[in-house]
Amino acid sequence: AKRIYDYVENNSSPVLMISGIFSVFKQDLVAEGIDNKYLLQRVLRRLFEDDWIIRRDYISKDKSYTSVCSSIVAYIKESRYPVSKEDLFGKFPGITDIVISLAISDEPYIINLFGRYIHRRRLTLADTDIEYLRETIERFLDDKKVCNCREIYDYINSDYPMLLMNNYIQCSFGLFSVLEYLFKQQYNFSRPYIAREM
């Protein structure tokens, strides 16, 4: 119990997944008869409910971090660069792809750059850049109702590659996410297609 307490208290993350704690101490826990994360959660609640906020899947050391999802969003928001899934797995041991998906799907300001995530405030887009992107969409929709974002990506990559590089956009998936964030009120988005509002 002391080793787990010290592990949680000395961890830089304010929220830890119980499955992550279980995997770190699995050998010792199984020897003590604790053979799954749910049993571990019950034991931790009995031992440390006055010290931490203990939920079904995670422990929070800080009352302001009562959700692992809000912690993931806060981590991405504070990062100066895109955060990869590997970064999140390292920062929040025990989280799953589903937890990451839940965290970002509820947060409109997190942009998915194809397995890397960035907060909108880290985008480097001047008003002229946003207008350039809108005009580019219009150019591709000029003679048709629907276009594939891959075509737009290829065009921008040859015409204005610095816009992509400055915003960490390395593929059409990332560009689609940025365009959807910027123009979701003006166009219909259904990955990888962009269409005029009907």
Summarize the structure in words.
With 198 residues, the protein is an alpha+beta fold. It is built from 11 helices and 9 strands. Strand 5 (110-112) and strand 6 form a beta hairpin. The mean pLDDT is 91.
Task: Summarize, please.
This protein is an alpha+beta fold and 198 residues long. The protein is built from eleven helices and nine strands.
How would you summarize the topology of this molecule?
Elements: H1 2-10, E1 15-17, H2 18-24, H3 26-31, H4 37-48, E2 53-54, E3 58-60, H5 68-78, E4 83-84, H6 85-91, H7 97-105, E5 110-112, E6 116-119, H8 127-141, E7 146-148, H9 149-159, H10 161-166, H11 172-183, E8 187-190, E9 193-196
Antiparallel strand pairs: 1-3, 2-3, 4-6, 5-6, 7-9, 8-9
Helix pairs in contact: 2-4, 5-7, 9-11
Count of extended strands: 9
- Chain-averaged pLDDT: 91
Order of helices and strands: HEHHHEEHEHHEEHEHHHEE
Q: What would you report as the Rg, rounded to the nearest angstrom?
A: 22 Å
Described by strand count, sense and barrel closure, the largest sheet is:
3 strands, antiparallel
- Summing up helix and strand content along with how strands pair, one would put the structural category as alpha+beta
Q: What percentage of residues falls in helices of 4 or more residues?
A: 40-55%
> Which strands sit side by side, in order, in the main sheet?
1-3-2
Low-confidence runs of at least 5 consecutive residues: none
Q: State the oligomer.
A: single chain
Strand proportion, as a percent range, falls in 5-15%
Cα distance spanning the termini: 60 Å
